[in-house]
Design a protein that fits this description.
Chain lengths: ~325, ~325
């Protein structure tokens, strides 16, 4: 792909062409050196596109909680309201299962073909780190393409949620009715991130259980300081199947953004995220460069063995590895 | 301090001399280049000392929860049982307040002068990162000095707890009686780390409230997957003032270590911690080296401004910073 093609791709993305967006995200996810350069150009161009700030929303929940149905129903509702909705997935299981690409496409049958929606299949790449790292670039592309609601979906097993929380404005946790003893399977640490907990499947025989779960979750959240100065996490019962309370879910989301906007926290949050993201990526690239140097890698491997065996202090090992990497370059 | 002095210091530490340990930890906390080299030698020597594995226990709780009294009472009890107890503090507030050194010393009046205990005052260094980074080295020194119980105390405001959780085997959270609505002030994320929650001040008029708090905390914990395969977090009511249930607190701690030992998880945990610690330190040192290069720092500052202003993508900025740092060295 030449620079001219990057320009064509960029123009396609800017005018909202889904095929261009899909190709752009594939480029952004690529690890090939020439692709990296092109991806950098493309993202730089997309950052420059002036649009109203989109709502970046992380969404998680363990398998079985009805996440796909929820996104499908909510997404269709938003499109009817005139929004343009993109759905990106960060799925650490895709490496194991060989990709849940087809799965996603078929699960969100309506949304994935709807005008005004772009559903990105789970990435099929091996390393979670890589995938999550590129997700912010993918969001930037989607935003340049006019998507004003960007959902980022994770599977709630705790590996990717903190990284996703660092790139979205709001974090939504989907749970199902059932007490803690029945084990929600929510990894510790994830509930902490939630700005909104949706107790899904709150219909029919589970309605009462959903009420109890809502109270339990509220109590759990009350024991802890709120994560944000201008927002106390809310818990809403809903049913993606019947559509019950999805309007309340969305009005809660909008209220969240109103509060964040009014308090100035949204601006601060975005700035801090961007800064953090940049420095995390610097760390990652430095470690990757270190790992590409065969001599340093050998040295690190031997020191790591000493550290694991308890004969070398981690701090001393680290100093030696870094010296080995940097000193010959001075 | 010459290498000969490091040897003297090491011998002092090994035979359990508290003044040597104090000087050693000061050395480890120093940022001076010659001190760093000596600290590395000292830590390397201490890592080689063969002793039974100590119990590394993190302890946190918001101010007012009675942490110092709790440590004092528990510590004195452990000394009577024949343990040697070291108490290290990671206190991010010390930079602000100009050091809580005197505070700590006077708060733990009995323990700080007790034979068999070493109470390290809060570090007076400016950056939390630096202090917490050195704490693992301080633990290694204390262990070489024969302390078989190493308590690491934090103030529970969320900045240092995750780092501390990465260097201890067990994490204890102190709370006080009172419902969530009365705001425990426990930062979200901290309860997640807890292997044991102690509801302190469970005496006199607060006894009933302590029972309710215990139930609330248990419910909150039940909603989440346990953090460790072989241990479900426990909640124990106790009173540091009357000494009530401190024996149960300690027997719970011992049960925790029995379970971890039996399942092999303790070995795995330590190995994983050491590895993680080493790589985190590598990252830190690389970023520090990058920051020491004036040209790179200027470039990073200008790109960071672009990132904060939304005109530069974080990923692109990161690539440019790293290129600027590494390329001239090739």
């Amino acid at each position: 792909m030449a620079t001219a093609t990057v320009q064509t791709l960029f123009e396609g993305i800017r005018r909202g062409d889904r095929a261009s967006l899909a190709r752009g995200i594939t480029l952004v996810e690529s690890t090939r050196a020439d692709h990296r350069q092109q991806a950098r150009e493309l993202v730089a161009a997309c950052v420059g596109v002036e649009r109203p700030r989109s709502l970046r929303i992380g969404l998680t929940g363990t398998p079985g909680v009805g996440k796909s149905t929820f996104i499908e129903t909510l997404g269709m509702m938003l499109i009817r309201k005139g929004h343009r909705v993109s759905v990106l997935a960060v799925d650490p299981s895709s490496a194991r299962s060989g990709g849940s690409i087809l799965g996603d496409k078929t699960r969100m049958q309506e949304l994935s073909v709807a005008e005004g929606a772009y559903v990105r299949p789970s990435p099929s790449r091996g390393t979670l780190g890589g995938v999550a790292r590129n997700t912010l670039d993918s969001i930037i592309l989607a935003e340049a393409s006019g998507y004003d609601v960007c959902l980022v979906e994770t599977v709630g097993v705790g590996q990717s949620e903190t990284m996703v929380a660092d790139m979205v404005d709001m974090f939504v946790l989907l749970m199902q009715p059932g007490s803690g003893d029945e084990l929600q399977g929510v990894k510790r640490g994830i509930m902490e991130l939630a700005d909104l907990v949706v107790v899904n499947k709150a219909d029919g025989p589970l309605e009462l259980a959903a009420k109890l779960t809502r109270t339990e979750v509220l109590n759990a959240l009350h024991l802890m300081l709120p994560r944000r100065p201008s927002w106390t996490p809310k818990v809403v019962r809903a049913s993606a199947t019947t559509g019950h309370n999805l309007d309340r879910v969305w009005s809660t989301v909008l209220r969240f953004f109103d509060e964040l906007r009014a308090s100035g926290e949204w601006d601060k949050l975005r700035a801090e995220q961007q800064r953090k993201w940049m420095w995390r990526e610097v760390s990652h690239l430095l470690l990757a460069a270190l790992d590409r140097d065969p001599a340093v890698r050998a040295c690190a491997r031997s020191l790591e063995a000493g550290v694991l065996g308890g004969t070398v202090a981690p701090s001393a090992a680290a100093e030696q590895i870094v010296d080995r990497f940097l000193v010959p370059r001075r």
